Amino acid sequence: MKVLWAPWRIEYILGEKEEGCVFCKADDPGAELTLYRGGTTLVLMNKFPYNNGHLLVAPRRHVAGLDALSSAEMTELLQAVERSVAALKAAIRPDGFNIGLNLGRVAGAGIEEHLHFHVVPRWFGDTNALAVIDDVRVIPQHLMETCALLRPHFARQVPAPVRSRPRPGAPGGKRSASQTATPRRS
To answer: Which CATH superfamily hosts domain 21-155?
Structure first.
């Protein structure tokens, strides 16, 4: 019989739940699982992952819903999701990804008071009978080893400037003369 070890899970199962918001704590300079701090976003390793390389992308501001984000925060949040996918592709080469967020406890949010995206790398064959029969996941690499593999990919990334593009017709969104030139007549 083979033994599968996931020693970091026992801390979650038996341990007392931490006071305060894990995402707000991840914004502290000494937070060991934080991979990236942008102007308004964070990327961190999930301490209790569904799969190897499971990342969490959250706004730095403590908000629960999408409607509380500014356009600039929403833009940077999705850019951070995109950067997370790029870093995971470069570091651990998954075959695909599950990316999503759960809004509200009934939708599956474990931490519903701070909005966050899950970026879960997937490989062909990563789900097996153990997950179906006994709710056991096999994670092939220790969390801190994966964190060390990913950290250089985020260190090379300079936070992207937040670009907002005004809509045509909105204030500041007028088209230039060259964009509105009349067609030539034959």
So the answer is: HIT-like (3.30.428.10)
